[in-house]
Amino acid sequence: MWRLHLCLLVALAEPFLNSKKTYEYKYEGLVRVGRELPDLVESALKMRCTFKIIGESPQTFVLQVSTLLLQFHHFFSIYPSVFSPSQKLTKRLSAEFSQPIVFEFSKGQITDIRTAPGVSNTVVNIVRGILGFLQVTVKTTQSFYELVELGIHGVCQSSYTVEEDSNAKELIVSQMVDITNCQQPAALYRGMALAPEDKLSKQRGESVVSTVKHTYTVKSTADGGLITKAFAQERQYFTPFNVKGGSSRLLALRDIELLKVSDTTDKIVTGQMQSRGNLIYKTEKDLRPIPVVMINLNEPMPKILDLIKHLAQANIYHVDSASSTDILNLIQLLRVATLENLEQLWKQVSGNDEHRRWFLDLVVEVTDERILKFLETRFKAGDITANEAGQALVVAFNHLSAEPVSVALAQEFLTIPFSKSHPLMWNTVVLAYGSLVYRYCVYTDPCPITVVQPLLDMATSGLSKNSEEDMVLALKALGNAAHPSSIKTLLKFLPGYTAGAEKLPIRVQSAAVQSFRLLASRDPHSVSTVLYRVLTLPAEIRMLACMVLLETKPSIALISVISEVLLEETDLQVASFSYSLLKGISKSRTPDNQHLSTACNIAIKILTPKLGHLSYRYSKNVHLDWFHDDFLFGTSADIYMLQNESLIPTKLMLKGKMHFIGRILQFLEFGFRADGLKELLVGKIPQLKKGITDFATIMNIVSIFSLRNENNLPKDRPLLTAYARVFGQEAFLMDVREDSIQSIIKSFSPSAGKESKVWEKIQDVQKGTSWHWTKPHLVYEARFIQPTCLGLPVEISKYYSIINAITVKAKAEINPPPKEHLGELLSSDISLHTDGFVGVTKDHFVFHGINTELFQCGTELKSKIVSALPWAFDLKINRKEQKYEMNLTPIKTVTELFSVNSNVFSVLRNIEDPSLFKITPMMPETEDSQKGLPLARILPTSRQCADAKIYGTSVCIEAEAKRAHYLHEYPLYYFLGHTRFSYQLEPAEGAKPIEKIQIQVTAGRKNPPRVSEMMNLRAYCFHVITVKALGLSPPAKPLGYEGVAFYLPTAQRDNIEMIVSDIGEEANWKMCANANTDKSQTSAKVKAHLRWGAECQTYDLSMRVSAACQPESKPSIYTKINWGALPSVFTMIGQRIQEYVPGISYIMGFYQKYEKNPERQAAVTVVVSSPQTFDMRVKIPEVVVLRIHHMSFLFQICSFMNYGSENCACSCVFV
Q1: Which parts of the chain are coiled coil (predicted)?
Q2: Which of 407, 342, 405, 349 is nearest to 375 (CA)?
Q3: Over the stretch 578-614, which tens digit does the pLDDT of each residue have?
Q4: Nearest-angstrom CA–CA distance, 765 and 915
Q5: Which helix H or strand E contains 622, and what residues bound it?
Q6: Sign of the Cα pseudo-torsion (438, 440, 443, 447, in order)
């Protein structure tokens, strides 16, 4: 009988709504955001209401929401909390909820939601959260089952368990939703396209973890299952690091309970309705609300103008750090302005240089088609300069939302004549379009070939015209785009795939190979197949191919094949470069190289006997990286140097990456190509093939550029090509040609006349000139938005903005002024007064919590770094007598040069009532707050100053750190508190008033008499320099210091001597130093002697370094230090070091023995025993420490530059 009862119960358990009934429920939703710790503040919101579901037809129902109440609160998690109602916001939401909402419901599935046209997207999403309790699948034959089904989080997998309460005739249904691997996720990423995910890093930990659990009570009725209770609990844990190391927690609770069921008496009049889709959460297309600010967006025009004027005025004479957050307010207002608004704003600001610049720098953050149409109008009208256009376009294209309409509009810039009006701007347009295509293809699969077709056509056209410049630009843009369909076109530029490609310039072939760099991660199989065949081409191409090939993360089998090829390689440049690539990766600790490093480690063991001795005269890669699992953060850096027979590198590249929260960001990369320069110089200066060893060679290089029409380099061949990549995308490309260098040299030449631009600037300075420049920039905006079970969006956002500013004022008096050419300045007296400042403000925000256009509830990290350098000084120059004088005004008030401020806040914002905004430090400022940050341990006091009373100035450092927790295993806790650090100048306490600080520099051959008597020099003096730094306070005599340096060359050695003395009536402190270098070619010897104290007689220290490297002996370096009397602090440090020598030497693998050595002497001897090892002997009083055959990175770097060769001696000098 009980089995029959159970079957009947289960059969009637499927959720069902009777179209003739009215169901009334009470609803309560709660969100809490914080750390869930007893002494930290959390922010929370609560939403209560009752709602009715009224049947219209068997599948159509009406939702009515009433008695809505929205409440907010800040509280400590262990104490009972009382929420404060927001009357104005409740009233605004109630007005929208009062309109009927219609939905289609059948068999436990909601298929369509319809509302009146004026209902906001925020309200519709809350409705989705309310109706979500109906979206449950109850199977009648299983107690556990898994389904992929639609919900508010998207199409995700759910795991169900069903329990039966036979007494109450109810089923308890539990549902766990896996929202991290949804087939069709509702979650949205924005701003992360250029930071691809690293799956291996995610295996080590996650920065975001979410769990969702639903519990339903389903009562069996005659019609079917009736949901009487529905409880949902959602948790999200977030940290900038690894969640296991402490995290910010968001808790969302939804509780729905049936109040009553009644017969429907009256039909609801719904009026005009529009479909709003199914139950999946819908995100606003423009992502209008920026989470860290909240501003009323109605009537944006006057607010935009006011903010532009305010920011421009506030940042003229200094960087106003207090107003830097207004950048985000201005961006948010610009994003709601219409295209017509932008055109009107342009008309109003374009006539004012300051307002115009601020507008152009920030309007580019309008990240949809409006900015493209605005810039297109500017390009066609020609009412902006090429400089303004290039700066605006590169930011606009790279911050643009990559939608089909945006890509289509961006293509138009490739055909506008203004885009080609300046070479650098044309490069910017083409490269930026390639970057846009890349970001578009990240979220579009398959990516249509139409978006990359213009770049393919450019490459084909450049090839047909044999235009090296056009081919290189198109190939670099294709490298930015990384479209899989471009491989066929790229092969046209690679020998071995296309007939005649071997005749293309090496620069073009190089660009073609590097165009595969981003394709390596998108299509590693195809790229590795292509590049492996390239390993038979010219040396430079093979080196670049190997570099890109390793980006595909090849298998151990392919690495083995590469090793075999390198064993047979005859070109040592290729062998050295490839070996160093493999060696760098073999030591890598970043997750992306986890498997590759193992394969490379095996390869290195095979290759080292043959290639391990190659020196840095050959092409090399230096790779450095680190990664911390608890932080899920690391960095890596690479230096690539490609060269051939000369010492001038053919190509030099520097690249840095950041590894964070499971993603890899290629932060910055710089590169230089110098084939033209090498070709020009090596042909005229044969010494460059061996090295630059004298000043005459350097001057010969300069003279080559000053001689016109004597160089045979083609006019279209650049001497130097420079590029820069930001976030992996090439954003800057510039060719430096010979005529450009000659033009610069001519402008500064003493023979330059009034036609020179330098002449024009000098005339301006004589009249008095000023210059001001600012550059606000939103460096990145990264957002992750995910719905909660309440229909409210939880957002994790990161913003990083910068304001750069500089102001310069200058006025000069030149006597006599130049009349015909610049060379006349060399015999004039010049007096220059200048004042101004340069400063940078950097704001970094991280937000975690609920963010809508109506309210915000969450936690917020705010970090501000301010750097500022003001100046005001007079400069007097007498070039003829080689006298220079600078007068500075001492600091009169506290001047902060550098500061860092950081704190984590609990925030509540409400658009309807700004007076209720609450921004509370998460860690309250209580007396028992601990100062446990390592910074506080390093600085035992919160303020330290170093006084220079002679100059009336103090340098002070202030540090403050307040922490509620100090647990090493929880890195997030380091940020949960107030941090402040500042470096500042201020007037010295107790010092006499100083009128000015004067610095005098005198250069010449004549020896000052007083110094001559002191030094008792027998040698003739050459290039003598005297420097005085004085504090002047008339009528008192000057105080300060005087330094004199002598350069005394002879045929056998170079001597340098220096004296620094205290200037004053009774001052006798002096420091005397001398050093000399032996010029012998068989050995290198450097001696230095330092004495200081009263008349240089109190303390003394001397050092001798010698290096010997002859063909018949082993290279060696010998260092000896002797000392007499020393200050007590030196003695204490020496004793401490000597105490630790036994332990440290044991750890490092040295062994020691006790000997009676000179008491005031230490010596180190290093002898190279093989190209990879050295022997070391350290002697200090009473102890000798030795180690035999030790591997050293230092000696591997030089390997004494071909150990055992005749050139060894010169190499030892550099080591």
Answers
A1: none
A2: 342
A3: 999 999 999 999 999 999 999 999 999 999 999 988 8
A4: 51
A5: strand 620-628
A6: negative
